[in-house]
């Protein structure tokens, strides 16, 4: 354990599995202000990073995206399906790190399910645009950093800790296991 966490009077580690892990993933993805989608993880070339919007998280914890069939990301995934997703909800909490395996399809039913009118900005022919593909990311491992009682309580604890010279931190972190 690192020195900062050794000074922590509270237990601030909690690994989550199964439904509890899926619920935490949904919570953090829903609060995220940004998602960064990294591909080319195992190719030996620098990872490709791009912002992406999660369209849905299903009950198994899979993350669903829509993408253009001719995009660089789809090309990357055809040679290396391993991906790394990074989410950040605020400056001090709601961080999520997911590794997974991506599959690309042109499943019309899934496109209909995930479609939102704003997507017409990228897919100008609407949900029937022939360029739309679906990316499904099945998480293989994850890690989260959050706080236990919300940002206000976390901030008050930090102020109190600074005033008395003690680590009072409302953080919680742990491994996420979906299966």
TrEMBL record:
One Pfam family, short name: Pyrid_ox_like
Residue ranges of domain General stress protein FMN-binding split barrel in the record: 20-169
Cross-referenced InterPro entries: Split_barrel_FMN-bd (IPR012349), Stress-Dev_Protein (IPR052917), YdaG_split_barrel_FMN-bd (IPR038725)
UniProt-recorded name of the protein: General stress protein 26
Species name: Mucilaginibacter pocheonensis
Species lineage: Bacteria, Pseudomonadati, Bacteroidota, Sphingobacteriia, Sphingobacteriales
